[in-house]
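Mods, move this if it's the wrong board.
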Amino acid sequence: MTFIVVLAIIAIVVFYIISMYNSLIQLRNQVKNAWSQIDVQLKRRHDLIPNLLETVKGYMTHERETLQNITNARAQAMSAVSVQDKAKAEGQLNDAMTKFNIAVENYPDLKANQNFLALQEELSSTENKISFSRQNYNDQVLHYNNKIEMFPSNILAGMFNFVKEAFFEVEDKSERAVPKVSF
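Not the wrong board. Structure tokens:
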């Protein structure tokens, strides 16, 4: 009888460890999936930018530097690998796109161009999807990091080398500032 109780306790412990390990794997894969969703939206954004720039080039003759900055920032963002590098590069691309949008205000004919409007709408939609994907990624990272740091799963996570993931954080502090609105 004691042997059966001991065997049952061992079976429960083994089942619990397997269950905990599988949940860690599931969370790690959810983080990877969330990151790939960000990557998909960033690629979409990177693919839209050249089309937008081509549409705008004919109108914007004096803002070559602005266009060049966007092209350079896009190239850096596409070549970034780690979460931190991507976040930094995407912050620079956001800055370049903000300056671009300000420059566009000087061209009323451009703002009425159907191709430009369609591309702007696509880019705006993509920016919203990127924002949602970033939020989802950070939520998944939070859940995963909590799991690998909290007892008792931290013991198993340490044994199998589960490591914390980095959050996708805005590098440029100016993006966090409250925008000034004046009339």
